[in-house]
Design brief:
The complex is a heterodimer of chains A (482) and B (663). Chain A is mainly alpha-helical. In chain A, 77% of the residues lie in helices and 1% in strands. Chain A has one domain. Chain A has a two-stranded antiparallel sheet with strand order 1-2. By secondary structure, chain B is mainly alpha-helical. Chain B has 28 helices and 4 strands. In chain B, the strands form 2 sheets. Chain B has a two-stranded antiparallel sheet. In chain B, strands 3-4 form a two-stranded antiparallel sheet. In chain B, strand 1 and strand 2 form a beta hairpin. In chain B, helix 15 packs antiparallel against helix 16 and helix 15 runs antiparallel to helix 17. Chain B is globular and about 110 Å long. Classes of the chains: A mainly alpha (482), B mainly alpha (663). Chains A and B meet through helix 7, helix 9, helix 10 and helix 13 of A and helix 27 and helix 28 of B.
Chain lengths: 482, 663
């Protein structure tokens, strides 16, 4: 173990973010300027991103007696988490201002949520994992409930909180079983213990079931997904945007830490559990999305199906599979930012652009926005030349490479079904007549449009030239495995 | 200049013209379009002349210019085979094309699609040159399809006319049938010879002569026979041989210069050229030669009959073209390849002349094509009259004219052939001489002599016709010089191209190794050569032969019926009711094709659409699965009840299931 001071250097991004979050709360208490907290939040996130880059070591570094790890995969994910949060803040600025939600309270919670994610990403210990998870979750519960007058939001927060508590309970129970079996909470040592000596297969399997169930809840994989549609639907669009994007990166890291770093020796067991969850997610996500009329609900189910794909990549247990899953997570966040960002951007005071009907004839009013949304939707459907195609392709390649051809066929079939509801949005935007009195299209925020354009073009560009990002993910995973 | 560059210039110059006129037609205007394409074709013609000189000096060429792709030991190349057969075709194609280009300036003067037209015909010249210059089957097929495409575009050039669209669709579909056989033939060559290069295939052919394949179990067929018949089916489509001839008469819907260039002089002879080029293969299969000869004989005779009753000036010449193509095919079947190519050449001149002359008449008649409305045009259109007369004399084989030498050689070659079916073929080509003479001079007398009938005719039906800047009710007028000059330039070889060339081309070994004849098995040409004593003797001795007197009889009959006893044709028509009805119905081919193939395909398509597409694919697979998905989606929506305890219950159930499953 290294000295205390170098431990702190390793955790500098998190420390910096914590400081900024506290400052935001202080500024909120003594200064009513919205612009100040807004800019401070963005600066804080940028600063954190910069610290991630500067403290990056290129090799896994343990800190705080094995509680904490800093490795390339974590660095890449943290960086993307920060950027995703920045994008979410910029997309939702006008939305929050309109609803008088742009305050230190909200942004402080958001920063604490990001802090929770960073901790999860860098956790090397059941305790730190749980600490990060709870920090994230509590902040998110509060954010969902932020719109206090809205019964829908309050109900959503309540559901999220209760079910989240249940999931945390399951997770903790699983962790305790594993602790009982191995005598350690540190992931590396758990793996070591499992590798050499498993006292009871039944206890291990039970522990795994509860841990996987908890993970499934965080990811939003079936059958632990049922909170997602209600929460995504009930929360204000800006919160949905945040909930649906960056936390998925953290959840992916969380799964990688527990399953790969900690429970790799039990790969044979959790592989099948993931496969079951993946197929269930693909089926429920893609099919239920078709029946939705609310785009936030539809995207919630779409998230469920994407998580199915992500799980398929992880379950292969191969390097290719892990990097495919990471690529999928990154791609998913990029596309979700575009999709939820558009919903948030198009909403205006008193009305959210949340129904599919609200997108009818969007092309007639806002051809450029319609084009971006079309790219997002086609990418989500997995059509070339967009990045979503490569995300699906690499996962399928990893699956076929590991010999799971049947699963690959199932995945393709369900994404085929899924293509319907994505393309329906495109059809509505381009070929349907806009309603006489348009309920949406309220905002005129140049910064958001510009960022949305960058977002949409990135989806296209990465689809044409996916190699850089693919290599980055593969390298990051490869250099971080122990 | 390097000779290889010169080879490349020949097809590329017209292509450049076509591209410029096609893409920048608006920019360069009408004059620009015809100048640039005529320049391209002129360059190609002059280059062909130079190459001709070079080849006569003994320089042949066979090699790849550009390798397109290599796959295994198969390489697909763009290559040229320049030998005496090729240069003859190159000269014919570029010369006739040049004449037609010039003529078009006058004929299409008022057409809004002027630039498009020039672009198409230059593109055609390029495609045809690629076809004849090819040294491999792939490029041959490329040229084959490219000329077919341009032909399709040009038949439907006036694409607002329903009849033109019908005609080009018909031409396209009938040619697909032929191309299907052609492609199968090429595929068989590819499969058995492992190469698409002419030279390699020809070298291997004798070893393949004994090979058999069984298409149906237990019935071995000679490989080469199957290949040759399949290739010839391609030629039947392109060269409009029975029963794939049906598209050619309808192709007259295209502008007249096209009828002259594509549907008489060049493209339709591609099949003849191809078989001549493949002589090393065809020589090895007597069965296929017999097949070729019989098909040609049927075409020569029976298509000629149809020409006797047509009243549209272009259709008469179209049926005459069919009949003459039949002659060439018969010559191929008799192993008289050089005679076929010789007739191809002379026919290109006089048939192009006849078509262009007919176009000139049509212009003079203000776009009326019915010969019953003409008569006495000699006075008004002297140049057209004289050149048309020359063309007709050449066509019927008047001794001394070019057509005489080529046609008589074919008749003699068929008589000397000993293949199965040569007896019928000899009868058909001989009888056809009378028919040819009759319909040619029926046309000639009705158009240029006799009473001037156009005054009445115009008064009757001119009002519905399309506009004509010359005015409707004026008398016929001679065409401008851009029209008459090509007529004169084509009339010269129509007279002259036989006499000096028959000896070297047929008997002097002009074609050298380009055409291969198995002299022991097929001695027809050799026997003819032994009896040949020079062109003058041939012309003199013709006066004592049957074909000559048949031709005279044909002319005399036409004169009697249409100049002396003008009431007789109507009477004959009434008496010979059923025969006339059959001829008028064109033997019922069009009706049969429409009913059986087009109707059958539509019926089959309708059934497949009804039961296959609508019921099985749409109904069960697409809509059925969509309905199923929709139902499951509704159920899943119902499960998402909104009650928190339901959700928690689902989670617990999930854990329980996982636990029972894996523990």
């Amino acid at each position: 173990m290294t000295s205390i001071s170098s431990d702190f250097v390793t955790a500098l991004p998190e420390i910096g973010l914590l400081a900024v979050a506290c400052v935001v709360l202080l500024v909120e208490a003594y200064n009513q300027s919205r612009a100040a907290v807004y800019l401070l939040t963005l600066t804080g996130l940028l600063l954190t991103a910069a610290l991630v880059v500067f403290t990056g070591a290129g090799v896994p570094v343990l800190a705080f007696n094995g509680l904490y790890v800093d490795d390339p995969m974590g660095e890449v994910l943290k960086l993307l988490t920060c950027f995703s949060a920045i994008a979410a803040v910029i997309y939702s600025r006008q939305f929050l201002t309109d609803r008088k939600m742009l305050s230190g309270d909200y942004l402080g919670l958001l920063l604490f949520a990001v802090l929770g994610m960073l901790v999860m990403i860098s956790a090397n210990h059941f305790l730190t994992l749980y600490l990060g998870l709870e920090l994230l979750s509590l902040a998110l519960y509060a954010m969902v409930a932020m719109e206090r007058d809205s019964a829908r939001a309050t109900e959503a927060a309540m559901k999220y909180f209760v079910l989240g508590a249940l999931a945390s309970g399951l997770l903790l129970y699983g962790m305790s079983l594993i602790y009982g079996l191995t005598g350690s909470l540190e992931l590396g040592k758990v793996a070591e213990a499992l590798h050499f000596n498993v006292k009871s297969e039944i206890v291990l399997a039970f522990g795994l079931v509860f841990i996987v169930a908890g993970l499934g809840f965080k990811l939003g994989a079936a059958p632990f997904h049922m909170w997602a549609p209600d929460v995504y639907h009930g929360a204000p669009a800006a919160v949905t945007l945040f909930v649906g994007t960056a936390p998925k990166l953290a959840a992916f890291a969380f799964a990688m830490r527990i399953l790969v770093d900690g429970l790799q020796p039990a790969h044979g067991d959790w592989q099948q559990m993931l496969a079951v969850m993946a197929v269930a997610s693909l089926a429920i996500g893609n099919i239920a999305a078709i029946a939705q009329t609310n785009i936030k609900r539809m995207l919630a189910y779409s998230t469920v199906s994407h998580m199915g794909f992500l799980l398929l990549g992880m379950m292969t247990g191969s390097l290719a599979g892990y990097s495919a899953a990471m690529f999928y997570a990154v791609t998913y966040v990029l596309m979700s930012l575009g999709g939820f960002g558009m919903v948030t951007y198009l909403s205006r005071t008193g009305a959210e652009a949340e129904n599919l009907d609200d997108f009818k004839g969007l092309n007639a009013h806002h051809p450029w926005l319609a084009a971006i949304m079309a790219m997002v939707m086609m990418s989500m459907a997995g059509l070339p030349p967009f990045v979503g195609f490569y995300a699906k392709l690499t996962v399928l390649q990893a699956l076929v490479g590991a010999g799971w051809i049947g699963l690959a066929v199932v995945a393709v079939l369900f994404s085929l079904i899924g293509a319907f509801f994505y393309l329906r949005v495109v059809w509505l935007m381009y070929f349907d007549t806009p309603p006489a009195e348009s309920p949406v299209y309220g905002q005129h925020a140049g910064d958001a449009v510009m960022l949305l354009s960058v977002n949409g073009l990135a989806i296209l560009l990465l689809g044409i030239l996916p190699q850089t990002l693919l290599t980055l993910c593969a390298l990051a995973v490869q250099m971080s495995l122990r | 200049m390097d000779i290889k560059t010169l080879y490349l210039v020949v097809p590329m110059a017209p292509l450049a013209g076509a591209v410029v006129a096609g893409l920048f037609g608006k920019l360069i205007g009408r004059t620009g379009a015809h100048l640039v394409t005529i320049l391209g074709v002129l360059v190609a013609f002059l280059a062909s002349l130079l190459i001709f000189q070079d080849v006569l000096a003994g320089h042949t060429f066979n090699g790849a210019i550009y390798t397109w792709l290599t796959s295994g030991n198969l390489s697909l190349e763009i290559g040229f085979l320049i030998d005496r057969l090729t240069v003859v075709m190159m000269l014919v194609v570029t010369f006739v094309s040049l004449m037609v280009h010039i003529y078009t300036i006058g004929y299409m003067a008022d057409d809004p699609g002027y630039q498009r037209f020039f672009s198409y015909i230059a593109l055609f010249t390029f495609s045809m040159l690629m076809l004849v210059m090819s040294n491999n089957f792939l490029q041959l097929f490329f040229g084959w399809e490219a000329v077919g495409l341009v032909s399709y575009l040009l038949i439907g050039f006036w694409f607002t006319r329903e009849s033109a669209i019908y005609a080009n669709l018909k031409a396209f579909m009938v040619n697909r049938v032929g191309d299907f056989g052609f492609l199968l033939g090429i595929a068989l060559i590819m499969a058995w010879f492992g190469s698409l290069d002419y030279q390699q295939v020809f070298q291997m052919a004798p070893q393949m002569a004994g090979h058999t394949i069984s298409l149906i179990d237990g019935h071995p067929w000679s490989l080469l026979t199957v290949i040759c018949v399949l290739l010839f089916i391609g030629a039947m489509g392109k060269s409009a041989q029975f029963p794939l001839h049906v598209w050619l008469p309808d192709s007259m819907e295209g502008p007249t210069p096209i009828s002259a260039l594509i549907h008489a002089a060049t493209m339709v002879t591609a099949g003849i050229f191809m078989v001549a080029r493949m002589s090393p293969l065809f020589e090895l299969s007597d069965t296929s030669l017999s097949f070729v000869m019989i098909i040609g004989a049927i075409t020569a005779l029976f298509m000629g009959f149809l020409g006797m009753i047509q009243n549209d000036i272009k259709r008469v010449i179209a049926y005459s073209t069919l009949s003459q193509l039949g002659y060439m095919t018969v010559a191929l079947g008799a192993s008289a390849y050089s005679a076929a190519i010789f007739h191809l050449m002379t026919h290109a001149f006089f048939k192009a002349l006849l078509f262009l002359g007919a176009g000139s008449v049509i212009m003079g008649m203000h776009h009326d094509q019915d010969i019953r409305n003409m008569g006495g045009l000699k006075k008004y259109m002297p140049i057209t009259w004289l050149t048309m007369l020359i063309g007709s004399l050449a066509l019927i084989g008047t001794p001394g004219f070019s057509g005489f030498y080529s046609k008589d050689s074919i008749i003699e070659a068929v008589q000397a052939s000993h293949l199965w079916g040569s007896g019928f073929a000899a009868f058909a080509v001989t009888a056809s001489v009378f028919v040819t003479a009759f319909y040619s001079f029926r046309l000639y007398f009705l158009v240029f002599h006799g009473k001037e009938r156009f005054h009445n005719a115009h008064a009757e039906h001119d009002h519905g016709e399309e506009g004509d800047s010359q005015g409707h009710h004026g008398a016929p007028h001679e065409s401008p010089w851009v029209v008459t000059v090509p007529l004169v330039l084509l009339a010269i070889p129509s007279i002259y191209a036989g006499w000096p060339y028959i000896e070297p081309m047929l008997y002097g070994g002009f074609f050298g190794s380009a055409i291969y004849i198995d002299a022991l098995a097929h001695p027809a040409m050799a026997e003819l050569g032994a009896e040949f004593h020079g062109p003058a003797a041939m012309a003199l001795s013709a006066l004592t032969t049957l074909p000559f007197w048949l031709a005279v009889a044909g002319v005399a009959t036409a004169y009697y019926l249409y100049m002396v006893r003008k009431d007789l044709p109507e009477k004959i028509k009434e008496k010979a009711g059923i025969v006339y009805a059959i001829l008028d119905d064109k033997y019922g081919f069009d009706r049969f094709n429409d009913w059986f193939f087009a109707g059958g395909a539509r019926l089959l398509g309708g059934k497949l659409w009804r039961w296959g597409d609508v019921a099985a694919i749409d109904g069960v697979l697409v809509n059925g699965s969509a309905r199923l998905v929709g139902q499951i989606a509704r159920i899943s929506r119902y499960l998402q009840s909104g009650y928190i305890y339901h959700y928690a219950f689902a989670m617990i159930i999930g854990v329980a299931l996982l636990a029972t499953w894996f523990v």
